[in-house]
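Support reply, case 0932

Customer input (verbatim):
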Amino acid sequence: MGDPAGVGAEVILRAAARLAHTTRALRLAVLGDLETMRETARRLGDVPEPVAWPGGGAPAPLGDSLAVLALSRLAARLRRPGRPTVEGSRAAYSYIVAGARMALAGTAGALVTAPISKEWLNRAGHRFPGHSELLAAMAGVRRWRMMFYAAGSPSVALVTVHMALARVPRAITAARVYETIALLAEHLKGRMRVRRPVIAVLGLNPHAGENGLFGSEERTAIAPAIKQARRHGIDARGPLAPDTAFADETRLKATHGIVAMYHDQGLIGVKARSFEEAVNVTLGLPFVRTSPDHGTAYDIAGRGLASAASMAAAIGYAWRAVNASSSRSTGAAA
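Our regenerated output:
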């Protein structure tokens, strides 16, 4: 459910109501605070009231109600929209942990996470920069990356994530860039059913270094990683100038994935093109995990103004990725 004081409950409710008309076979359960979900539904007025789900087995398919597994019973003062608390952040942390355990155990096909506040998560004593780092630690994986998907655009994977910009150049190594290319190619093939993905790799420096004039990372790390990927049968191309990578529509239409060197290099392009419908996907986990690409939006929480488009896209992407993986393993057609 995410932070009880954020927009998580309202975007989940509206996304579920939208998906109920198009994806009725989807079985969706919310892990969170039942009374927060019910209060939010009453406030919105145009969504069904959630019902308690005891867990065990599968919830009913999406339809006239939304199942909620109540993992907390927050007092009224702790579920006020726009008023984050340490207690609420602790509850949000418990929802993530419970969801990850279900996904790891195979009792959930995928995990979709509503927004949390990294600041309040740390105030509550949980020292993780975000969901991805926590989930990777729980799953015991070291090879993971953040990827962003939006319909009609290439998926964008990041070599470095939540890192100060001053530290990025030292973190750009051939091994790290190659690992990102490989994880993205694996996801595109396995979860998105792209037989021969084309992956564009961006440079780090202006004009992709201009043959060493503006930096050496392209020659010492990025180009060698691209060569390694191609030796392993991955159609990786670059390094490309970052300032034009998201502007060349002809190239974008022929590209399935983009590897960006740092957070804002990739995210500015994604959000400028598809802010309301982009989906955050964690690569490298043993289960599907997605989330909307926005934050808690405390400033508008409780006012019914938050768009549910990204949450609906995140749930839909998780549903398709799980089904694509199942079809691939059984040899069934899409």
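We compared this against your earlier run and they match. Two observations from our side: The first strand starts at residue 29 and ends at 33. The chain has two domains: 1-141, 142-284. Please reopen the case if you see a mismatch on your end.
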